User: Fold this.
Amino acid sequence: MNRVPLPPDLIGGALGIYERYAPLFWFGVRNTLIISLSATVIGLFIGLFFASLKQLKIDKKDNTIVKFSKVVLRVIANLYIEIFRGTPMIVQAIFLYHGLRPIIGWTPLTAGIVIVSINTGAYMAEIIRAGIQSIDNGQYEASRSLGMNHLLTMVFVILPQAIKNAFPAIGNEFVVNIKDTAVLNVIGVSELYFQSTAVAGIVFRFRDTFLITALIYLFLTFTTTQLLRIAEKKLDTPEGLVGASSSSSKNFFGFKRKGGSS
Amino acid sequence: MIDIQHLSKSFGKQEVLHDISLNVQEGEVVCLIGASGSGKSTLLRCVNLLETPNAGKIVVDDIDITASFNIDEYRTKVGMIFQSFNLFPHLNVLKNCTLAQRKVLKRTVEEAEQIAYENLKKVGMIDFATMNVTKLSGGQKQRVAIARALCMNPKILLLDEPTSALDPELVGEVLDVIKDLAKSGLTMLIVTHEMSFAKDVADKVVFMDQGVVIEAEHPSILFNNPKHERTQAFLARIVHQ
Ligand SMILES: Nc1ncnc2c1ncn2[C@@H]1O[C@H](COP(=O)(O)OP(=O)(O)OP(=O)(O)O)[C@@H](O)[C@H]1O
Ligand SMILES: [Mg+2]
Assistant:
């Protein structure tokens, strides 16, 4: 396979490497996409869950047990968010993978999906929380005044609007994940970066190999960004998942609350 | 039907409602008037428990709603109309009207839609059923909000300045709907700045000032022969505007 030496220049070298090792790169792409896509979706649900916990409000009418559990749940949500946003994912990956391997014996790929999901969840929780805050309080009050309880109101009135408002930020998490799965090479997940180091090690041409790697990452993120844009436009039409914003709702970074009107 | 007894409400140190007592009979339409900040909205919101009173009682249909009880069930019986409509922008007109029917009253889709159509017809919005609510005018939005509330078969409707956010030319269509409801015998508590409307529709007009009920009378008495100085001053100001 390596009979003919690679051309010495960057472009020639890169083309030669791609020609010989394309399947190795695309195997890495496959894993990168599996992890980043599933972790973004799972992370969204984790984020929804923890954002809802953070929304828990203590009511004067609650009894002591309810009050206490609400406080505990809120503390747990805050701890989770702070810990996973406050430490590098590469550290989380090594710690969790090696820490849990003796107990649950997971593969690097499974561990990779779980770690990126948990990490994404922490960011998603904040994104969803901001999305919830961007919804006019009148929406909450109108729903409650129709007899819908807190849970029904969140699920059918607040969250659909919050997710729609937060959609650009949620999509951005996916793009970030495509790039950030690269850190999983430290636990031996054969994603794109890991595969690239393997190829570079065989041919001993890091510069040329990583030109290919960079171009593939760029292709992935660019395509994803464009697809997300199209999806966003779809959401904005009345036929989309949810309709356009009302006169009273604010955009995602508006944060304006009307406090139940006059 | 609604019996408010010695109700007080404070936000922090500020006492917004002070020892309010007020009675609304079944089928009665009561209009609340008064200057901005006098506590009209807060009183209305207390009746729906969007605000929790600090003292006093609100007895509705012989049940003290300030004691602990099923708040969500109670709220299905008391509709609330907001100044800013608060329609759900992610749902179309029909779904705005069916959501709570299905989730709270557990009606079937067919049942809920039939009731929604009946009420949309009442407010003259049946032709807009499949429309996105964000595309409607203010007057249309408020009429849908009224239909949405009526779908829960409320015994009482609370309206907080239902026409204040509307362009002047759209006020009439909403007031007409409310007048029809009044004729149909629905019990209503309405905060309004539309004095001629209050005169027309109210069985009782309540004038509030600084968190206190100053006078509660039939409109013919309150508007023509207000007893209290503060009522006179308020009405004089309104007339001169
Ligand atoms: N959530 C709140 N927190 C603190 N203060 C409040 C709150 N809601 C109302 N207030 C205060 O309570 C007082 C009465 O307000 P309220 O909205 O009931 O008046 P209003 O008669 O409805 O006035 P308007 O005609 O302007 O609607 C005001 O001084 C207001 O600032
Ligand atoms: Mg008000």
Notes: The CA atoms of residues 101 and 149 of chain B lie 10 Å apart. The interface with chain A takes residues 36, 41, 45, 48, 50, 52, 68, 72-76, 78-80, 82-92, 99-100, 103-105, 132-135, 138, 141, 145, 148-149, 152, 160-161, 164 of chain B (CB under 8 Å). The radius of gyration of chain B is 18 Å.
